[in-house]
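Onboarding guide, step 5: your first structure request.
Type a short instruction followed by the sequence, for example:

Predict the 3D structure of this protein.
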Amino acid sequence: MSSFKKKTINALKDKGRAIVDMSDPKLCGGLEDNEKGWENVIRSGFGIIETDYSVELAEYLRQTTNKRANLMSLIQNAESLNINTYSNDSAKHLSETLKKAKDDTSNLKTPLSEIKQSSYDLQEAIYNLQIRTKADEYKERNKVIIIVSFLAIFVVVLGGYFLFRKRPPKK
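The system replies with structure tokens like these:
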């Protein structure tokens, strides 16, 4: 959540890089000059941060870059998995988590804490994949049988309607 007004953010959106002075909370929406404050301004789209803690900010940005690279590697590993060998639920969870991780790596406004969370979530989704069982295969087969049966009944009923409907006598 940003401390800056939406009007201010929207006015600057896609217009270039914006600078924020974090050295005085009065100049940056009351935010502190620390990791939490930096995450807030990065998420808001500010690309240049003036700070009294340049060494700490540089370390934060280095960690962000490294964690983003690690997450991208984890994404490649997850994409190489054959999800057809896993249960539908666990494969679906992996796919959803993978999409979020991709979004986070492609968005340069994603702060370090969210990149760490996406990395953790993706690791958990991979770890929690469950091998497809015979019961899963039966469920899938039964779904197909039900759908095909429904369609067959529909075709028979529709055919019967057209075949046996009363037609006006021919003159």
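Each response can be followed by summary notes, for example: Strands lie at 19-21, 48-50.
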